[in-house]
Amino acid sequence: MATSTENKKPQQTRVMLVEDHPLFRERLALLINKDLGMQVCGEADNIQQAKKLIQSARPDIVIVDISLRGSSGLELIKDLKAQGINVPVLVLSMHDENLYAERVLRAGARGYITKNEASSEVIAAIKAVLAGEVFVSKQMTAKIISNISTTGSNRAGAFGVELLADRELEVFQLIGSGRTLKEIAELLHLGESTVDTYRSRIKVKLGLRNAAEVYLRAGQWVEEARLS
């Protein structure tokens, strides 16, 4: 689904939403439109629609979820950067900040916030990114600085997770959170066999022997991320 709002109020910030859960997208649009300085100018639920709409609606900021239909929001961020489309992107995701914030910033996003944050914090994140700032929590800022200054000892490297592609990382994180293949397939809008293929790729990339070791390693990684 893609829509574009042609008539905007004068001097309002144009916000585009890329989110594949209709109810959450609707609530987010209501929240943004309540702010006197902002208006949602377009909505999309996959990256193909999003790229077309960004070109036509010309938003001032794009809010992107990581988990989208058939692809990852990270791929959209990388595509925009590769094509020289210089629109600031804020990631608003269900995933824990410790697991994804650093990766999305490297991909070209300007901020990361989780969906369980208060409405006021979401608005604050949008305004910070629009002001040219990078928005992550203070704890995440300290962690990123530590990772930059410490070679070869960060959590992701220790588990080999940097070897995983973006969608593989999503599957790995959900496995570590105790989700079944069926649940992961439903969450990511993928077939169960596709999720199983991702799990097999993860096993090979991380040098694991079987599915049980994948579940064990994923659980350890998610737990360490939460504690760090």
Question: TL;DR?
Answer:
The chain has 228 residues and is of the alpha/beta class. The chain has helices spanning 22-34, 47-57, 73-82, 97-107, 119-130, 138-149, 155-159, 166-176, 181-188, 192-205, 211-227, and strands at residues 2-4, 13-18, 38-44, 61-64, 67-68, 71-72, 89-93, 111-114. It has two domains: 2-144, Rossmann fold; 155-227, Winged helix-like DNA-binding domain superfamily/Winged helix DNA-binding domain (Arc Repressor Mutant, subunit A, Orthogonal Bundle), CATH 1.10.10.10.
Protein described:
The protein is an alpha/beta fold and 228 residues long. The chain contains eleven helices and eight strands. A six-stranded mixed sheet has the order 1-3-2-4-7-8, sandwiched between helices. The longest helix is centred in the C-terminal third of the chain and has 17 residues.
Shape: globular
Question: Which structural class do the helices and strands define?
Answer: alpha/beta
Number of domains: 2
Question: Could you list the spans in which at least 5 consecutive residues all have pLDDT below 50?
Answer: 151-156
The fourth-level CATH homologous superfamily of the largest domain is Response regulator
Strand adjacency order, main sheet: 1-3-2-4-7-8
Give the CATH class of the largest domain. Answer: Alpha Beta
N-to-C SSE string, H for helix and E for strand: EEHEHEEEHEHEHHHHHHH
- Main pleated sheet: 6 strands, mixed
The number of helices is 11
* Span of the ends, CA to CA: 38 Å
Under the CATH scheme, the architecture of the largest domain is 3-Layer(aba) Sandwich
Rg calc: 18 Å
Average pLDDT number: 86
Give the helix proportion (percent range): 40-55%
Number of distinct beta strands? 8
